Structures are given as structure tokens and as C-alpha cells.
Amino acid sequence: MSPIILSEIFLSGFMLNSTACLFVYCMESSSSGTNSSAIQTSSRSEENLMEQRKRKRMLSNRESARRSRMKKQKLLDDLTAQVNQLKKENSEIVTSVSITTQHYLAVEAENSVLRAQLDELSHRLESLNDIIGFLENTNGVCPNPLTCPESDDFLVNQMNMNMFHMMNQPLMASSDALLY
């Protein structure tokens, strides 16, 4: 068996014990008359070939590991950027909710003031309508002279003064008083 056949067997993927191959080769070469230097050369070339394959596998593994680390780092960077973006959006939403809440509270306070003013004006209107109704029903004439006041009577003057003050009095409603 020649050294070329041994290397072809090795290259084709069969893993043979090198000592067994050398023994077979030695047996054949001693019978065929070849010298032992050919055995040593074949053995060295097989070792070199194995070393080259080992180095190639090692380099390939290193490159694969490097690509894997780079991919993992890129994923980590992307996730970190996404976290920062989401934190920024969350902060903007919290600010927007806070501003909206402040506007809501201001509008609610204003509505409370307006409700209080509506109640006061409704009460004044009801009082004025009662006075007008009383005056229309009596036509300015008192049905019982003993109970009706005279035109210069104190009670009539007081009612006129109260009505005058009521018409000219500003509405006093405060949002602070209604919020608490």
C-alpha cells in the first residue's frame, strides 16, 4: 500500500489508527523493498493535515463565537434603546395626564362657582317674582287697611331698599370655598 493511498483513506473520512496503518505499511514495504523514510514522511504529512484541520476548525469556531457575541451585543443595544424610548414616551404621557388633570380641576372649580352663582340668581329671581306677583295681585290697593302698610310705611320702604340692594349687589362666590 503506498503513502498516497493512506492519505486518500484519511482524507475520505475514515479514521484509522495510525500505528495500525504504519504497521500494515511497514509490513508491505518490507516485503516490497521500500525504505522506512517513506513511512516517516507519510506519518508527518498526516499529522500536518490533522493539525491544519484542527487549526481551521478552531478559527472557524472563534469566528462563529465572535459573530454570536456581536449579534448578542446588537440585540442588547437595540433593547436598551427601546427601553430608553419607552421611558421617554412614558414620561411624556405622565406629563400630559398631569396637565389634563390640572385643566380638569380648574374647569371643575369654575363650574362650581357658576353653579353657586346660578343658585343665587335663581333665588333672587324667585324673590323678585314673588314681589311682582304680590304687587299685581293687590294692584297697589290693600285689601285690609288695618294690615296693609301705608306707602310711606317703614315696611314698604324696607322692602324697596332690600330690592334695590339686591339688584345692585355683586355675586360673591369663590372657587376656594367650593373646592373644600
UniProtKB/TrEMBL annotation:
Comp. bias regions, Polar residues: 33-43
Gene3D superfamilies documented for this protein: 1.20.5.170
Location, primary (coarse class): nucleus
Subcellular compartments: Nucleus
Keywords, sorted A to Z: DNA-binding, Nucleus, Signal, Transcription, Transcription regulation
Region forming the signal peptide: 1-21
CDD domains: bZIP_plant_GBF1 (cd14702)
Region (Disordered): 33-71
Residue ranges of domain BZIP in the record: 51-114
Protein name listed in UniProt: BZIP domain-containing protein
Lineage, uppermost ranks: Eukaryota, Viridiplantae, Streptophyta, Embryophyta, Tracheophyta
